[in-house]
């Protein structure tokens, strides 16, 4: 855990705010790589993940961007309405689950809305290393597109193409054209709202890009239909304790009530903080953190949102 000071709070658009975070004494922060995020600890024991969008060469500050989401469970509202310049907040050290592929011949970056934050850091790193890349930044309108001045003043400005939903047809993202030819050594990176990401990922898969070439990071999970949820059991391998998971509770909430400690953060299957090994049984995966290939192995699951297809899961806890 790190104590940092909010040294600057800037409204990038009407509903996106950026925070500059620095050590209170001005000393260096732990290093990070492009695509990394931090956990921001908020009131009422909320923990939310935000990508770092500044250059990884900067050792004195972290920069995050936060969208004020009308469907927020409280995290983004807390940042917008309660955190102010001069506040001391707690964060984790950076973690990177969305890193650039080392040695890639070429990179194609796709950003939708607030999903631009990790993509900006990637563009900074790629241009600094003279790597070949292009960046596509999509938003509903130009007015909703944050960090435009940042991009215009960057060394990678010429690599960026902006696409607006309300603009003319000629400037809209032609995904089939951009991804028309799957090339060995080329990697795709996608971040943004679920609908945008599904659009890009489906196109990439349809056009023949391999799973190893596609990298993604979700900011939130799609709504889940709970109408068919049923009860099942989980067994703790180390103690033999068995817990019934009712249809209206998650594995994580039941185990937390029983004093079984599992690290957690997003509570919706996005961040992977609560990822738990499964020794027996078949999970019903509902996360967006793992790939389809990892789901197929059925040897780990996210107890914050995933459930079970089998009557019981034996957990490596």
From TrEMBL:
It holds the Pfam family DmmA-like_N. One of its GO terms (molecular function) is 2 iron, 2 sulfur cluster binding. Keywords: 2Fe-2S, Flavoprotein, FMN, Iron, Iron-sulfur, Metal-binding, Oxidoreductase. Its EC number is 1.14.13.-. The keyword Ubl conjugation does not apply. Residues 1-101 form the FAD-binding FR-type domain. Its cofactor is FMN. The keyword Oxidoreductase applies. Residues 232-317 form the 2Fe-2S ferredoxin-type domain. It is an enzyme of class 1 (oxidoreductase). It comes from the Bacteria. InterPro entries: 2Fe-2S_ferredoxin-like_sf (IPR036010), 2Fe-2S_ferredoxin-type (IPR001041), 2Fe2S_fd_BS (IPR006058), Beta-grasp_dom_sf (IPR012675), DmmA-like_N (IPR054582), FAD-bd_FR_type (IPR017927), FNR_nucleotide-bd (IPR039261), MRET (IPR050415). This is Flavodoxin reductase (Ferredoxin-NADPH reductase) family 1. It comes from Gynuella sunshinyii YC6258.
């Amino acid at each position: 855990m790190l104590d940092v000071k909010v040294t600057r709070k800037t409204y990038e658009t009407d509903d996106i705010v950026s925070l500059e975070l620095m050590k209170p004494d001005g000393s260096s922060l732990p290093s990070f790589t492009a695509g990394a995020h931090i956990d921001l600890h908020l009131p009422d024991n909320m923990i939310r993940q935000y990508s770092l969008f500044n250059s990884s060469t900067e050792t004195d500050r972290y920069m995050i961007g936060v969208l004020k989401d009308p469907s927020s469970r409280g995290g983004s509202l807390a940042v917008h309405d309660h955190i102010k310049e001069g506040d001391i907040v707690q964060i984790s050290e950076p973690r990177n689950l969305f890193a650039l592929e080392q040695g890639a011949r070429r990179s194609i970056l796709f950003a939708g809305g607030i999903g631009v934050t990790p993509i900006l850091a990637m563009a900074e790193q790629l241009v600094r290393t003279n790597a070949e890349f292009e960046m596509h930044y999509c938003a509903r309108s130009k007015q909703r597109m944050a960090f435009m001045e940042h991009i215009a003043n960057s060394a990678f400005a010429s690599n960026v193409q902006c696409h607006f939903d309300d603009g003319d047809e000629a400037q809209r993202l032609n995904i089939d054209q951009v991804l028309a030819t799957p090339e060995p050594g080329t990697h795709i990176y996608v971040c943004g709202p679920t609908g945008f990401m599904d659009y890009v990922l489906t196109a990439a898969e349809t056009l023949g890009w391999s799973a190893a070439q596609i990298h993604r990071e979700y900011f939130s999970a799609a709504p889940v239909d709970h109408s068919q949820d049923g009860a099942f059991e989980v067994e703790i391998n180390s103690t033999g304790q068995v817990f019934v998971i009712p249809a209206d509770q998650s594995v994580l909430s039941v185990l937390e009530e029983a004093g079984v400690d599992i690290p957690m953060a997003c509570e919706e299957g996005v961040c992977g903080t609560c990822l738990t090994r499964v020794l027996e049984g078949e999970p019903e995966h509902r996360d967006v953190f793992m790939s389809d290939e990892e789901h197929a192995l059925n040897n780990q699951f996210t107890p914050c949102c995933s459930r079970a297809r089998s009557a019981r899961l034996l957990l490596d806890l």
